[in-house]
UniProtKB/TrEMBL annotation:
Principal place of residence: membrane
Location(s), subcellular: Membrane
Organism: Hymenobacter luteus
Gene Ontology, cellular component aspect: plasma membrane
Full protein name: Bax inhibitor-1/YccA family protein
Length: 243
């Protein structure tokens, strides 16, 4: 489970004098790029996960060796942390490559869910996740309510969720497992709206620089990709049927 808040681009940006209609057009075009990169990453993750789960030798390497599995998880966290902290210092091709590599790597670790849950429950949970994500992302994009005040509460909730989840890895308490599952769903539903609204501001970062615009779009895609994946995993804990 990973989540990050994109850092603000530190270089001073020129003051823009554009109409509200032009600003809306720019934001719409930018968010189309974000959703496009995100959809591509999800497709890659799903494809890699299905491929790995269908090869017994790969399954044995990933699921049969805890050292390998947790090593992959640590590598994922490193990649996400590196991208989030260095996004605008990297070249456009580098951040794009890192995002693609992360999506494939995540597919390898997520391949284990195909061994644990039935195909029907995976498919139904995915569609529920997609619908929920779409509604909340649209809300975050179109609402006139400033969601910025959600930030501190969501981050504190996320930290608490991570701590509780780590503790329960050793405690193995079913009640705590259920509680964290529902809290996780609520948190990532809210984060989807919050992050979508926050990402609208990135649309203006790369107006006069195509490379910077690409970096911002990929960074935004990674943010929403993580929201989607985490929401899916927590919903799966609630609705997934085990084999």
């Amino acid at each position: 489970m990973e989540e990050f808040v994109p850092e603000q681009h530190e270089e001073a940006q020129p003051v823009l004098h554009i109409s509200a209609e032009e600003a809306a057009r720019i934001q719409g075009t930018f968010m189309q790029q974000v959703y496009g990169w995100m959809a591509g990453a999800l497709a890659l993750t799903g494809g890699v996960a299905m491929l790995v789960s269908s090869v017994p030798e790969l399954v044995e390497v990933v699921a049969g060796n805890r050292l390998v599995f947790f090593g992959l998880l640590l590598l994922e966290m490193f990649v996400v942390g590196y991208i989030s902290s260095r996004a605008f210092d990297m070249s456009a091709s580098s951040i794009t490559g890192a995002f693609i590599a992360y999506s494939a790597l995540n597919g390898i670790t997520l391949s284990v869910i195909f061994l644990v849950f039935t195909a029907d429950s995976l498919a139904s949970t995915f569609f529920v996740t997609g619908g929920t994500f779409a509604v909340m992302s649209l809300y975050g994009y179109f609402t006139r309510t400033n969601l910025a005040h959600w930030g501190n509460v969501l981050m504190m909730g996320l930290v608490g969720l991570v701590i509780a989840s780590v503790v329960n890895m050793f405690w193995l308490n079913s009640v705590l497992y259920t509680i964290t599952s529902f809290i996780g769903v609520i948190l990532f539903v809210a984060l989807t709206a919050y992050d979508t609204q926050k990402l609208k501001a990135l649309a203006f970062v790369g107006l006069e620089d195509e490379a910077t615009d690409r970096k911002a779009a990929v960074l935004g895609a990674l943010t929403l990709y993580l929201d989607f994946i985490n929401l899916f995993l927590f919903l799966l804990r609630i609705f997934g049927r085990r084999r």
